[in-house]
Design goal:
The protein is built from 14 helices and 24 strands. It is an alpha+beta fold. Helix 11 crosses helix 12. 38% of the residues are buried.
C-alpha cells in the first residue's frame, strides 16, 4: 500500500511537469517555424493573439480569434494555414514589370473576406461584410469592396483607378519604368508623369515605431495603401532617396513621430541639399506621436495623435495642406579653456534652445528613461515624470542666480539680465507641450513672433513654478528681445542645456545661435478639419 501511494504521488507530480515541458517544446518549435515563414515570405506577416474584429481565415474560411495578418495586403489566416496562404496569395508589390512602359495600367488586386466595417459595394452600393462568414472582396490598392454575388469576370480584369487617394499613391508600374530608364541611362523622368496624373503629389510615410505612445507600428498597417518606411529599420536619408525618382517639387512626406523624429528627417533633407538634390526636396507634414509635439502644434497638426482621426482624413489633410517655410538654426557650443583642443559641438535647432529649469527637467527625464525605457511607453506617464521633476526643482532651485553666471548678447548688443533661473530661445510659437510662451497671458503688447521671419524670441523665467504659471496663463515671461543672432556666455559652473528636447550638462562655454537654412513644411488649418468632421 505504501509503494502504491508513492507511485501515484510521483505520477501526480511528474505527469503535469512532462505535459508542460512537451507543450513548451511544441510551442517553441511552432514559433521557430512561424518565424521562418515570416522571414522568407514576401508578405509583411505579423502574429496576433486576438484580432480586433471578427476575422475569418482566407484559406479554410473558418472563424479565427488568433493568427497572422499581412500589414501590406490585409490577408488574415490561422496559424495552421499560414504556409499554404503564403504560397496561394500574392502580396501587394511596389514594383511590377510592365509591357506597356510608362502608359501601362494594372487590374484590381482582390482579396476575399475581412472587408472593413461599414464599407459599401461599388456595384450595388449596399453594405459589405455583413454575413458571419468569409465573404466579399476588397482591392488592396483602391480599397473598393464588392459583394460575392456582384463580382463579375469583367471586374477581375478591370483597370484599377487607385481610388480616392490616386494622387498620393506611387503606382507600381511607375517605379518599374523609372528603374528601367536608369538602367538605360535615361533621366527624362518627366515623360512618365502624364501616365500618373496631372495633379500627382506622391506621399511617402516615414514612421518611427518607438515614438511617444508607440502607435507607429499600428499606423504602418493603417497606411498600407501608400509607401511606408519604418525608421527603426531604415534611415531617413536612405528612404528619401526615393524622391529623386519622382517628379521635382511634387513629393510630400508624412512623418509619424515626435519632434525629434521630424528633426532627424529634416537633417536627412539637408544632406540632400549638400548632394545637389535641391529640386527633389519634399514638403514635410507631421502626424504627432511624441510627448511634447510643439513643432506639430505650431504647424497646425495638433498636440498629439491617439487614433481619434481616421487615417483617410489624415491623408485628405496632407493633400489640402499649404506649403510654408520653417527657419532652422545652427547652435554652436564652444568650450572655454586655454588648452581646449576639442571641436565645438554643433546642433541644428528647429524648436528652441534653453538653459535652466526646463533643461534640467529634460535631463532628469532622459536619465530616468535610459535606466528603465519600458516604463516610458505612454504620453501620460512621460508628462507625469516631467511634472514630478518640475515639482522637485521648485523646492531645490538648482538653477538659481543664473543671471550672475551668464552673459547674453542679442545681435551683438549685451542685455542686462534681471534675477532669473532660466533663458529660453524660441524659433516656434509653442513650447513645453502646448504653451505659447512668447505671448504669455496675452495682456501685454509684444512684437509678432513667426517661425519663418529669421528672428528668434528670447525670454527669461524665474523658475519651475514660474514656468507652470505661464503654461496656465497666470503669468507672463520676461521678454528679453528678438534677434537674428544670439550669443550666450556661461562663465562658471555646470548648467543644464537643451536643444529641441535633447539635454546635456555643460561647463563654461560660449553658445552662438545663427540662421542655417529653411525647411519646406506643410501647414494644416485646424478649422478645415472641424468643418469636415461636423459635416
Amino acid at each position: 500500500a505504501d509503494w502504491s501511494l508513492v507511485f501515484w504521488t510521483l505520477c501526480a507530480i511528474i505527469l503535469p511537469v512532462l505535459i508542460t515541458v512537451w507543450c513548451s517544446f511544441q510551442r517553441s518549435r511552432r514559433q521557430v517555424l512561424i518565424r521562418d515563414i515570416f522571414r522568407k515570405s514576401k508578405h509583411d506577416w505579423h502574429y496576433t493573439d486576438l484580432f480586433g474584429q471578427p476575422s475569418y481565415c482566407c484559406v479554410c474560411a473558418q472563424h479565427i480569434l488568433q493568427g497572422a495578418f499581412c500589414n501590406c495586403c490585409g490577408l488574415r489566416v490561422s496559424e495552421g494555414c499560414l504556409k499554404k496562404a503564403d504560397q496561394l496569395f500574392l502580396c501587394k508589390e511596389i514594383m511590377m514589370r510592365s509591357n506597356g512602359g510608362a502608359h501601362s495600367s494594372m487590374p484590381h488586386h482582390w482579396i476575399r473576406g475581412n472587408v472593413p466595417l461599414c464599407s459599401c459595394c461599388m456595384i450595388c452600393k449596399q453594405q459589405c461584410g455583413t454575413q458571419p462568414k468569409l465573404c466579399d472582396y476588397r482591392c488592396v490598392w483602391c480599397q473598393y469592396t464588392v459583394h460575392d454575388e456582384c463580382m463579375m469576370d469583367c471586374l477581375k480584369i478591370e483597370e484599377c483607378t487607385f481610388g480616392e487617394f490616386r494622387d498620393l499613391i506611387i503606382p507600381p508600374y511607375y517605379l518599374s519604368t523609372i528603374n528601367q530608364m536608369r538602367k538605360d541611362k535615361r533621366t527624362n523622368y518627366e515623360k512618365v508623369v502624364p501616365y500618373c496624373r496631372k495633379h500627382w503629389m506622391p506621399v511617402i510615410i516615414l514612421a518611427n515605431t518607438r515614438s511617444g505612445n508607440n502607435m507607429g507600428e499600428t499606423l504602418l498597417g493603417e497606411f498600407k495603401i501608400l509607401l511606408v518606411f519604418d525608421l527603426s529599420k531604415i534611415a531617413p536619408a536612405k528612404a528619401l532617396q526615393l524622391c529623386t525618382l519622382l517628379p521635382c517639387n511634387a513629393v510630400r512626406v508624412l512623418v509619424c513621430g515626435g519632434d525629434g523624429t521630424v528633426g532627424w528627417v529634416l537633417d536627412a533633407i539637408d544632406e540632400m541639399k549638400i548632394k545637389g538634390q535641391e529640386r527633389y526636396i519634399p514638403q514635410v507634414a507631421i502626424l504627432p506621436l511624441g510627448t511634447g509635439n510643439d513643432l506639430s502644434n505650431t504647424l497646425g497638426w495638433g498636440a498629439g495623435y491617439a487614433g481619434e482621426v481616421p487615417v483617410e482624413q489624415i491623408l485628405r489633410n496632407v493633400m489640402e495642406a499649404d506649403g510654408i517655410k520653417l527657419d532652422r538654426w545652427k547652435v554652436q557650443v564652444t568650450n572655454k579653456g586655454y588648452y581646449n583642443l576639442r571641436k565645438p559641438k554643433v546642433f541644428t535647432m528647429n524648436n528652441y534652445f534653453s538653459i535652466g529649469p526646463d533643461a534640467l527637467m529634460a535631463l532628469n527625464f532622459h536619465a530616468h528613461r535610459e535606466k528603465t525605457p519600458s516604463l516610458f511607453s505612454s504620453r501620460i506617464i512621460n508628462k507625469a515624470v516631467y511634472f514630478f521633476y518640475g515639482t522637485k526643482d521648485c523646492l531645490v532651485q538648482e538653477c538659481k542666480d543664473l543671471n550672475k553666471k551668464v552673459e547674453l548678447e542679442l545681435d551683438g548688443e549685451r542685455i542686462e539680465l534681471p534675477n532669473l533661473e532660466g533663458i529660453i530661445v524660441l524659433n516656434i510659437g509653442y513650447w513645453g507641450g502646448g504653451c505659447r510662451l512668447w505671448e504669455g497671458m496675452g495682456d501685454e503688447p509684444y512684437p509678432l513672433a513667426r517661425h519663418d521671419d529669421g528672428l528668434l524670441e528670447v525670454v527669461g523665467v524665474h523658475g519651475s513654478f514660474h514656468c507652470a504659471q505661464i503654461q496656465v496663463k497666470l503669468a507672463n515671461p520676461v521678454r528679453l528681445g528678438q534677434a537674428h543672432t544670439v550669443r550666450l556666455i556661461l562663465k562658471s559652473s555646470k548648467m543644464p542645456m537643451q536643444v529641441d528636447g535633447e539635454p546635456w550638462a555643460q561647463g563654461p562655454c560660449t553658445v552662438t545661435i545663427t540662421h542655417k537654412t529653411h525647411a519646406l513644411m506643410l501647414y494644416h488649418s485646424g478649422e478645415q478639419t472641424d468643418d469636415e468632421a461636423s459635416s
